[in-house]
């Protein structure tokens, strides 16, 4: 296989064209009106390597909300703010096999500790423990952390936030349950505001790829030449992405793709390719991958996005296993 950048770019563009058609097997998330209006046929990918080299293809200018991809970021931030023992006392690191917004295990497993930070119960708990006295302070911290990684200011899509805020009955139920069993560090409405605002942060595929690059590099930003978060936290984040990042499809994703990844109902997928996983690829020292394809499957993963990621991971032999 040629490692010429131009050839890689052509291949990416070819795969985007090929997998765009898979969008018809899914649908845009309909429970958030602003997401339902998206064009399901959009598909975009960006890959950034450790030297800053980027290849991208498709609808790369499109902005979309992080949704559940934000759960990795707030988990990392909470570990930095509170220390790992504090976080792990309140959220476990076990996959569930349940849907992302399931409430069942909060009652069936005492003392009701959320199973992991990648499902809603765990993510709401994590959002509640971020440093800051008000939801606004916590959200500002998240935005500042992302600005450090990406190098530009991001904003919140207020329309997406508002529509989720007024329909968040399941998330409210989860938060009240967590509060009752002592797992929330701030009032229910404050925790929900932080959680739903982090979900509504807008990015493009290059932004996602940059976040993936830093996670792949164990918290070290190879372009800024700066350690942004501890290696131990990055390793835990990657383990959680592998075991829980693609919801109840994480097992199949690990088996057939084999990369730490996190998806969101907006159709976003963030993947981190550590150096050893990219050894035989055009990015032999590792890379970050950002994908966007808003038509999702019933589990919540981008249909075309997963197929595209599988194609490039297989073709370029990118896997942690
Ligand atoms: O909590 C929610 O419903 C959304 N704001 C985030 C969910 C999400 O992205 C789960 N996805 N697969």
From TrEMBL:
This is Glutaminase. Keywords: Acetylation, Hydrolase. It catalyses: L-glutamine + H2O = L-glutamate + NH4(+). Its EC number is 3.5.1.2. PANTHER family: GLUTAMINASE, GLUTAMINASE 1. It comes from the Bacteria. The keyword Hydrolase applies. It is an enzyme of class 3 (hydrolase). Homotetramer. Substrate binds at residues 68, 120, 164, 171, 195, 247, 265. The keyword Acyltransferase does not apply. Belongs to the glutaminase family. Gene3D superfamilies: 1.10.1500.10, DD-peptidase/beta-lactamase superfamily. Pfam families: Glutaminase.
């Amino acid at each position: 296989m040629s490692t010429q950048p131009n050839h890689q770019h052509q291949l990416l563009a070819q795969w985007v064209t090929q997998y765009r058609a898979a969008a018809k097997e899914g649908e845009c998330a309909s429970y958030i009106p602003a997401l339902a209006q998206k064009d399901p046929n959009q598909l975009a990918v960006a890959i950034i390597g450790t030297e800053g080299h980027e290849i991208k293809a498709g609808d790369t200018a499109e902005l979309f909300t992080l949704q559940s991809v934000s759960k990795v970021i707030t988990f990392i931030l909470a570990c930095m703010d509170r220390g790992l023992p504090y976080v792990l006392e309140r959220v476990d690191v076990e996959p569930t096999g349940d849907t992302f917004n399931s409430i069942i295990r909060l009652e069936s497993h005492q003392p009701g500790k959320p199973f992991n930070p990648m499902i809603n119960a765990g993510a709401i708990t994590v959002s509640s423990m971020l440093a800051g006295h008000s939801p606004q302070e916590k959200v500002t911290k998240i935005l500042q952390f992302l600005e450090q990684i990406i190098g530009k200011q991001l904003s919140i899509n207020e329309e997406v936030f508002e529509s989720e805020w007024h329909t968040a009955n399941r998330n409210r139920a989860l938060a009240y349950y967590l509060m009752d069993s002592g797992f929330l560090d701030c009032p229910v409405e404050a925790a929900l505001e932080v959680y739903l605002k982090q979900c509504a942060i807008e990015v493009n595929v290059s932004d996602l790829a940059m976040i993936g690059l830093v996670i792949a590099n164990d918290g070290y930003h190879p372009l800024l030449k700066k350690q942004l978060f501890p290696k131990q936290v990055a390793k835990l984040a990657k383990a959680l992405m592998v075991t829980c990042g693609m919801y109840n499809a994480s097992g199949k994703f690990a088996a057939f793709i084999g990369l730490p990844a996190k998806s969101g109902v907006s159709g976003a997928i963030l993947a981190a390719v550590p150096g050893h996983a990219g050894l035989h690829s055009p990015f032999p020292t590792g890379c970050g991958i950002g994908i966007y394809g808003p038509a999702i499957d019933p589990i919540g993963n981008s249909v075309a996005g997963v197929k595209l990621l599988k194609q490039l991971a297989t073709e370029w032999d990118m896997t942690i296993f």
